[in-house]
Amino acid sequence: MRPSLREKIIATCNKKIEAKGENVGLSFYAFFSNKNDDPEQLMEAASWWILTHKLDHFEKAHKIKVLVIAEKVNNAS
Predict the structure, then answer these.
(1) Stretch (H or E) spanning 60
(2) What angle do CA 54, 44, 77 make, to 5 degrees?
(3) 3-state DSSP call for residue 54?
(4) Positive or negative, the Cα torsion across 16, 12, 69, 26?
(5) Rounded to whole angstroms, how far apart are CA atoms 43 and 52?
(6) Do 14 and 65 contact (CB within 8 A), yes or no?
(7) Phi and psi dihedrals of 29, rounded to 5?
(8) Per residue of the chain (77 residues), what is the pLDDT tens digit?
(9) Which of 7, 63, 65, 76 could form a disulfide with 13 if both were Cys (CB 3.0 to 4.6 A apart)?
(10) Which domain of life does the UniProt lineage start with (predicted)?
(11) Is 9 exposed, middle or buried (0-12, 13-18, 19+ CB in 10 A)?
């Protein structure tokens, strides 16, 4: 996953958790505006969410954040 997408996902998860609490759920669409202004990045997020991790449509923001950070740490090694 490109670093800019990783950071966008973490920031969005942090914002949602701060606003609605630890149990807030979201879909990969939460990382994008309602405009389809970056289809490649949207498909990258969708592939990561659906194909790589086989996640449900809605998942807990905390779970997504943990997955992204773990991959960042594992890829840095």
Answers:
(1) strand 59-60
(2) 80
(3) coil
(4) positive
(5) 12
(6) yes
(7) -65, -20
(8) 899 999 999 999 999 999 999 999 999 999 988 777 889 999 999 999 999 999 999 999 999 999 999 998 888 76
(9) 65
(10) Bacteria
(11) buried
